[in-house]
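pinned: reference chain
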Amino acid sequence: MNINKVMENLDKNGIKPYFVETKDDVVPLVKTLIHKGESVSNGGSETLKETGVSDLLKSGDYDFIDRTGLEGEALRQSYIRAFGCDTFFCSSNAVTENGELYNVDGNSNRVACIVYGPRQVIMIVGINKIVRDIDEAVTRVKEKSAPLNTKRLSCKTPCEATGKCISLKNDNPLICDGCMSPQRICCNYVISAKQRHKDRIKVIIVNENLGY
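pinned: its structure tokens
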């Protein structure tokens, strides 16, 4: 894996790349990219927890749009507020060597904010999420990201029970192949390639294995 190539191609695609050696380096960098008092929100992410970014957002220095414990209309309104926030934080399911971001969502508030809305998006990504191409990204989600996230979210899906997507039974599973569970988390698939709004999306690559 050539990190320099990944970063070069992210930059060519209008996605601002950063690189840090350890998870402890993430919060100091993030603090230079946002200002106190700004509105911030986040998608569900183990990586944000592992790097301390979740605690930073809750520190009181920022207008944190927190959906924890909300339901119904209150939850919907928090999603709408997050769509217009100054900075949205998340990870990415995969980053290709060609500088593409691959993300799959169930509820899809995360991919909605990645595509449009927040003034900037900051993604924190461990090196374990860097893949060769989109085909490897698709496989990674079916083999790793989706099964682990269904366990985290207690979703009753085949991959939660078996540890892998049922579509892998096929020789060449298509990107959207999967189960018919009402709790399926693979519902919307987003590939972010060349960006019109240069550097709106920022990717911090961490030289450690983080998240799913």
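why pinned: Residues 134-153 form the longest helix (20 residues). The mean pLDDT is 96.
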